[in-house]
Structures are given as structure tokens and as C-alpha cells.
């Protein structure tokens, strides 16, 4: 099989998940080209997180397939999928609160994927972790990288979780509501970072409630409602659809709500 | 007024938090302050056999053997695997060493290392299928396995059945057995502490705290847990092999519940998570149990009583308590 440039990096085919009768994801299909930036939106409980969990192996699908770089990864263990190059952040961050911030990055830095990517050997992991945090805006000379995670403000934790995902050197990055809990200024400083990753070739799926920020950076948007895909296209296209307007009843599409007050 | 003139000051770890390798040590006094808690107990343990009579030296070997099992328990607990079957590790090591010597006449220099490694591999292989189970389910399986093996030996008569294998090779000198036990115990203690403080141990502890997060970092948690089972299994099997040759006998009793329960009690007494607690706990519990032997039937009751009271009074364990006191006491300074 050839991995030609126009073959999608990710292909989701009729993915389904029901949790004891609750259809969390129903018959969702989409494709993602290498280097593309896809946004996923939808009301609370529409199945966005479940879709991420299905792609990353944390939840086993009730039906359908997931293909990554042409390879069937449906139902594979999460570490195997991470090893293949899909990194994710968690809506509820999963960090180690009793460790210093930089030590949280040691875990992906110890993975066999990182060793492979570095040409078969590990680097000086502590230094690399601090470097990565530095790139993420936690300056090396500040106290932040060495502080216990438990003592850091919530907005920092989200960025730390992003750094943890990036430490894996992914080919596809999935961000699950990264901006929730971040302040306006934190969003403003994190967004350019994510755009930079995308410009450098990283394929990104971003789930976000802050539509204004999301629409500025994505190429394409997919809208979920009650587990089903109800629209797909450019931000303007999807927001013009009646069904999307209905799902987002009360939200003025032209001027998305101020995230600080919404 | 005396309370006004002095105050307690705790060791400032602010600098150490920035780097694990550089200690900011100001004086010889501080070096001593840091090293004494490591070297004094080691020195005492190494010199002790020279001053003890034969009976208490036997007790010391037992303390080291239970100590190894307690360390092994603490190691598994560090990655979230709670075992109630330390006797599985112990018995496997004991039987492998015994069988190699009995059937193939291999000398102790071969049987002990082989039993250590093969025991570790076997433990990992036997428990790997159940390591996806968490908490109490894993504990239940580990509790059952040694009892199951014991019944297999009893009913099929393999490895000497109920009679066991006797007249096995012993150690040329009793001191050799004693020092092998002590050194094995100390090596295990410091090795485990090193492993846990390294990135390798960081990942094991992270698996205990949040295995999903670790998986999202591309780490095969089941492979890591198998490795932890091997390491813990090898420590327990070494203890078993040592015991086999020390008593020149191996029997079904090596799978007995004592070897599963006492190590857990030792960790509970000493405090989990540091290995030093497990070591200290066994060094207290085993001699205590011997000292109470004179009391006959009441022994177990008193023994359990002491255990319960100390766990209630010091839920953090003896070691954490001592460590805290050490740092506080040493740092009393005068206020001018
Ligand atoms: N582990 C689970 N068990 C049972 N139901 C679940 C589980 N995870 C999600 N759900 C249900 O699936 C639906 C979609 O949830 P989710 O994917 O978290 O939505 P979103 O991320 O879009 O807010 C919800 O109705 C939720 O209650
Ligand atoms: Mg969600």
C-alpha cells in the first residue's frame, strides 16, 4: 500500500458507540488530510469527547472503523495508538499533581516512539522536558517548570497537558476543549502556538466551545449533535446551515459570545 | 521562656527541587546529617552477626528474608499492584533452587542466581494475565495462586509432595548464609530506592496514579507492569532460594500464608512507599515475633495487638515518623 500525499492521514468510517442504550456517537464518518486543521463543535453531551476516546483507543467502538495513515487502528490499545503518532489532551487534565511540572513530560519522553524519532536513543530527558516547556511559554528561568503541578493555576495545567501531548512528537494532535478554564490572555498566547504547530505540518483536531477563536484557525469544521454529524465544511458554510443554527439555538453566529462571560 | 529562645527549623529543600543531582551542601556537618541515616543502620546490620549468638543470627536471617518479601511487596504497590501472595514468589524461588539441586545436583552458586531469575520470570508469566485487574481483584488472585500450587504439590506428589525435598546442599559456613541474606536485603533496599527515584520508577508510580494518562504518553503499561512483576518476583525468589539452602530443605510450607501476610504487616508497620519503611518494619516485626515466642499461646494475640496499636498511633508508619523527627530535631536553633 502506498501512502501518497493525497491519502488521508485519518479516516473515520461510520463510527458508533452506545453506552448501555445511550448513543454517544452514531455513524460518524470523516476524513482528515495531512496538515489539515479540523474543528469539531457541538453542544454539551453531543459526543465530542467520546469521538476522541474512540479514535485514541480509550473507548472501544460498538461499530465502524478508524484508519490512521491507511492502517486500521480500531480497538487498539491507547498506548499503541499513541505510539503510532496520535497525541491528545484531556478535557479534564490528567496530570501528576505531586510531581514538578517538567517531570510530567518525562513519561512521553520515555516512550519508545520518542526514542525512535530521536534515532534510537534517548536524550537528556530532564533538559528536554524543560526545553519543551520553554517552547510552550513556561520560561526556563521562571519557577513554573519546577513547581509542583498541584500548586499551578488551572490555565497553566491545560498548557502543561498540551506540552505533554507535544512531547510525544505526534503526527496528529487532538485537543479536547483545551481553552476551557483558560483566561482570555492565556487563550491569546496559546492560540499562536497551536497555529505554529499546524504551519509546521502537524495535523490537528480541535474541539472547542470558543467559536470565535476556533474559526480563526481551522480549515474545516465538523458539527456534532446527539452523536451524529449534522454538518461539515468551512466555518461560514456550517454556520449557514439551519440544523446547526437550531443546535446552537440562541447563539449569534456572526458575533460569537465573549468567552469570558458566556 | 525556653520555648521562646529556640525554634524548630526544618531542612529547606527548595534548592533540591530544582535539580536532583546537585545537593547544596554547606559543611561536613551537613554531609554527615544527610549520610548518617543511611550508613549507621547499614553498619549496624553488617556488624550485628559478629555479636549475636547462633539463635538470634537465625532470627536475623529470617528478618532479612521477610524484609526481602516486604521490599518486593512495596515495589509492586508502588505501581499499583497490591499483592497478598508474596509466598508465591518465595515458594517458586525455593522450589526452583531445591529442584535444581536435588535433581541435577547443581551447586548453590548456580541454583540461587538461576532461581532468582527464573522465579522472577515465572512470577511475571503467572501474574501477567491478571495484572489488568486492579486493587482487590489482583490481590485475590495472588492470594489464591500459592495455595493452589501448594495443593498441586500435595495431591500430585511432585517435588517430593508432602515430604518436600531434603538433604540439599547447604552453605559451607553459617556466616556465609547470614551475610548473603543481609547483603541481598541491603542491595535490594538500595536498588529499589534507586529505581523508584529514576525515571523508570517515576513511570511505575505514574501507572499507579493514572494509567490512562501514562498510556496517552505512548507507554505500554502492561509491559512495564510485567517488568515490575519480574523485579519483585526475583527479589522474593532470591529469598526463597536462600532459605532452601540455608535449611537444606524445601517443602510446601514455603507457599504458606505467613510469607504472604507478614511482609504486608511489616510494610504497614514501617510505612509504605519508601522501602526504608518496609525494611524497618521487618527488622522490628520478625525479632519481636521471636521474642514473644516465650509467651506461648498468647504470642499471636500480643503480636497482633502491638501491630494494631502501632498502626493506629502511627498510620504513616514508623519510618515516616522517624524521618520527620530526625529532620526536626536536628534543626533546633537558638533565636538571638
Ligand atoms: N463512559 C461513559 N459511560 C456512559 N455514558 C457516557 C460515557 N461517556 C460519555 N457518555 C455519554 O455520552 C454522551 C456524550 O458524551 P461526551 O462525549 O462526553 O460529550 P461532549 O464531549 O460532546 O460533551 C453523553 O450523553 C454522556 O453522558
Ligand atoms: Mg467533552
Structure at a glance:
The complex is a heterodimer of chains A (262) and B (336). Chain A is of the alpha/beta class. Chain A has helices at residues 48-56, 78-84, 106-109, 112-117, 125-135, 154-166, 184-199, 211-217, 235-240, 242-247; strands at 10-19, 22-32, 37-41, 63-68, 71-72, 86-88, 172-176, 203-207, 220-225, 228-233.
Helices and strands in order, then pairings?
The complex is a heterodimer of chains A (262) and B (336).
Chain A: E1 10-19, E2 22-32, E3 37-41, H1 48-56, E4 63-68, E5 71-72, H2 78-84, E6 86-88, H3 106-109, H4 112-117, H5 125-135, H6 154-166, E7 172-176, H7 184-199, E8 203-207, H8 211-217, E9 220-225, E10 228-233, H9 235-240, H10 242-247
Parallel strand pairs in A: 3-8, 3-9, 6-7, 7-8
Antiparallel strand pairs in A: 1-2, 1-4, 4-5, 9-10
Chain B: H1 2-5, E1 6-8, H2 28-51, H3 54-78, H4 86-104, H5 108-127, H6 135-156, H7 174-197, H8 199-209, H9 211-216, H10 221-247, H11 258-270, H12 276-291, H13 298-313, H14 318-330, E2 332-334
Antiparallel strand pairs in B: 1-2
Major beta-sheet overview of chain B: 2 strands, antiparallel
Instruction: Return the domain count of chain B.
Output: 2
Largest interface: A-B, 33 and 20 residues
CATH homolog superfamily of the largest domain in chain A: P-loop containing nucleotide triphosphate hydrolases
Q: Calculate the mean pLDDT score of chain A and round it.
A: 90
List unreliable stretches of 5+ residues of chain B: 12-22
- The stretches of 5 or more residues of chain A where confidence is low (pLDDT under 50) are none
- Spatial extent as radius of gyration of chain A: 18 Å
Number of strands of chain A: 10
Side-by-side strand order of the widest sheet of chain A: 6-7-8-3-9-10
Number of helical runs of chain A?
Answer: 10
Q: Based on Cα principal axes, name the global outline of chain B.
A: globular
Query: What is the distance, rounded to the nearest whole angstrom, between the alpha carbons of the first and last residues of chain B?
Result: 13 Å
Termini Cα gap of chain A: 48 Å
Which structural class is indicated by helix and strand composition of chain B? mainly alpha
* Shape annotation of chain A: globular
Mean pLDDT of chain B: 87
Proportion of residues in β-strands of chain A? 15-25%
Bound molecules: adenosine-5'-diphosphate, magnesium ion
State the helical fraction of chain A. Answer: 25-40%
